[in-house]
Description:
globular, 9 helices, Rossmann fold, 55% helix, 182 residues
Amino acid sequence: MPCDEGQKGMQVMNIILTGYRCTGKTAVGRLLAKMSGRPFFDTDELVCRRTGKTIAGIIADEGWMAFRKEEHAVIEEVCRLDGVVIAPGGGAILDPANVQCFKKNGWVIWLVASAETIRKRMENDASSRENRPPLSDKTIDEEVRESLAEREPLYRLNADMVVNTDTLDEKEAAAAIFYAMP
């Protein structure tokens, strides 16, 4: 489903934070929203609120396709807003319709981290383990490396800015984005 045109007239660009799980999208997004006085939306949180289930629950009950359908509906909705910070799930970039929504009225920032950093963060993040199911039956290391190999070209292609969260903490990453905002 294509992204709707959204509101006409003067628009304030949205800030879209893309990247793999545990690259800092939510933490950086919350700080950036506070710094810039913008509302913040985490699409995974919105999907969970809308469905009354965790992501793991949606996938266990209905499968990945049902989750991706809900995710797209939420992305389409929040991308119609102006002047907000949006943190979509790491896999949202795989759907060209989501990317179309991001680019329609958004400045896309790719938060990048190494596979090793992501794996360590995932192992240390209890909420990640409880709420987000594995993408496959492979080890975390194999899954992260394979998923990054698939997604990195899409993140790169659609990024207006790249911020490496291997070398910056959340505050530094948010400040780098804030001072570069159009």
